[in-house]
């Protein structure tokens, strides 16, 4: 931390207003920017260490969802697919990988909003760091939490008898694709956190966004069993594309169409929402 020495103004003169240095993204440099992101990531990780209860959602959510859907809906939905719980388990786990990113992303928006209310973000904005580094550090830490949730999800799946019909590289590809899409979705929730006044409002709006996308998708059930109008929505739902991509990569099957659509959604969402979120962060009072 640097200190500034204030020199008194000469007698009889009016003190000049202190100059405010504006730190733009390009003037800081890539190396310093990465160093700032690393320092902020460490700060966020120390927060989790201080408050381990903040990891409960990432640790318990995969277990609850797997047990709930496999043993409550697995028999009926699996039967309609021509199999049983085993068939549904192989269908569900790749779909839930698409869901993890959405649920973890909502925590990013709530965290950003809470930091602003506590004045933490105001302190960051007075420092000589790129504004984007604060938000990117948030995303890096939440991606780490998402990876923990995904590993627990896969562990539960394999423990219950999930069979990997694809290759290990396909599994790694599915995890990477889910992480990339999850990072893109986080920019949307960061913008919500910067735009809404309270954490409760962020969570409420987040649920309004998540519920139709999650349940109006191919995550939990094949779209063929849905009404025609809902099938149309499901076809254009990016979560359906991600779930279908993960299934194809993990269980075998054609991957080109759904994977390219998911990558397209990821690029478009990031390209549109990230600059808006960073601009909102700069201007938020």
From TrEMBL:
<feature type="transmembrane region" description="Helical">
    <location>
        <begin position="134"/>
        <end position="162"/>
    </location>
</feature>
<comment type="similarity">
    <text>Belongs to the ABC-2 integral membrane protein family.</text>
</comment>
<dbReference type="InterPro" id="IPR051784">
    <property type="entry name" value="Nod_factor_ABC_transporter"/>
</dbReference>
<keyword id="KW-1003">Cell membrane</keyword>
<feature type="transmembrane region" description="Helical">
    <location>
        <begin position="259"/>
        <end position="278"/>
    </location>
</feature>
<keyword id="KW-0813">Transport</keyword>
<feature type="transmembrane region" description="Helical">
    <location>
        <begin position="91"/>
        <end position="113"/>
    </location>
</feature>
<feature type="transmembrane region" description="Helical">
    <location>
        <begin position="168"/>
        <end position="194"/>
    </location>
</feature>
<feature type="region of interest" description="Disordered">
    <location>
        <begin position="1"/>
        <end position="22"/>
    </location>
</feature>
<dbReference type="InterPro" id="IPR013525">
    <property type="entry name" value="ABC2_TM"/>
</dbReference>
<keyword id="KW-0812">Transmembrane</keyword>
<keyword id="KW-1133">Transmembrane helix</keyword>
<feature type="compositionally biased region" description="Low complexity">
    <location>
        <begin position="1"/>
        <end position="20"/>
    </location>
</feature>
<feature type="transmembrane region" description="Helical">
    <location>
        <begin position="58"/>
        <end position="79"/>
    </location>
</feature>
<dbReference type="InterPro" id="IPR047817">
    <property type="entry name" value="ABC2_TM_bact-type"/>
</dbReference>
<protein>
    <recommendedName>
        <fullName>Transport permease protein</fullName>
    </recommendedName>
</protein>
<keyword id="KW-0472">Membrane</keyword>
<feature type="transmembrane region" description="Helical">
    <location>
        <begin position="201"/>
        <end position="221"/>
    </location>
</feature>
<feature type="domain" description="ABC transmembrane type-2">
    <location>
        <begin position="53"/>
        <end position="284"/>
    </location>
</feature>
<dbReference type="Pfam" id="PF01061">
    <property type="entry name" value="ABC2_membrane"/>
</dbReference>
<dbReference type="InterPro" id="IPR000412">
    <property type="entry name" value="ABC_2_transport"/>
</dbReference>
<keyword id="KW-0046">Antibiotic resistance</keyword>
């Amino acid at each position: 931390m640097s200190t500034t020495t204030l020199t008194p103004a000469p007698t009889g003169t009016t003190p000049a207003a202190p100059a405010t240095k504006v730190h733009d993204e390009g003037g800081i440099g890539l190396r310093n920017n990465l160093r700032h992101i690393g320092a902020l990531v460490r700060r966020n990780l120390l927060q989790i260490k201080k408050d381990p209860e903040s990891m409960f959602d990432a640790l318990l959510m995969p277990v609850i969802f797997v047990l709930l859907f496999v043993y409550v809906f697995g028999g009926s939905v699996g039967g309609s697919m021509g199999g049983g719980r085993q068939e549904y388990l192989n269908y569900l786990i790749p779909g839930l990988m698409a869901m993890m990113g959405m649920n973890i992303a909502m925590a990013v928006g709530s965290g950003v909003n809470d930091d602003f209310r506590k004045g933490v973000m105001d302190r960051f904005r007075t420092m000589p760091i790129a504004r984007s580094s604060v938000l990117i550090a948030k995303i890096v830490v939440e991606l780490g939490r998402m990876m923990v949730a995904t590993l627990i999800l896969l562990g539960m799946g394999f423990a219950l008898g999930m069979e990997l019909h694809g290759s290990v590289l396909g599994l790694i590809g599915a995890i990477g694709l889910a992480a990339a899409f999850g990072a893109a979705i986080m920019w949307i929730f960061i913008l919500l956190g910067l735009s809404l006044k309270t954490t409760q409002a962020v969570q409420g709006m987040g649920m309004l966004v998540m519920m139709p996308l999650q349940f109006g998708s191919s995550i939990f059930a094949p779209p063929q069993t849905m009404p025609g109008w809902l099938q149309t929505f499901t076809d254009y739902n990016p979560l359906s594309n991600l779930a279908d991509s993960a299934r194809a990569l993990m269980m075998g099957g054609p991957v080109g169409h759904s994977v390219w659509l998911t990558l397209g959604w990821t690029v478009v969402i990031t390209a549109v929402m990230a600059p808006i979120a960073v601009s909102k962060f700069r201007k938020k009072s």
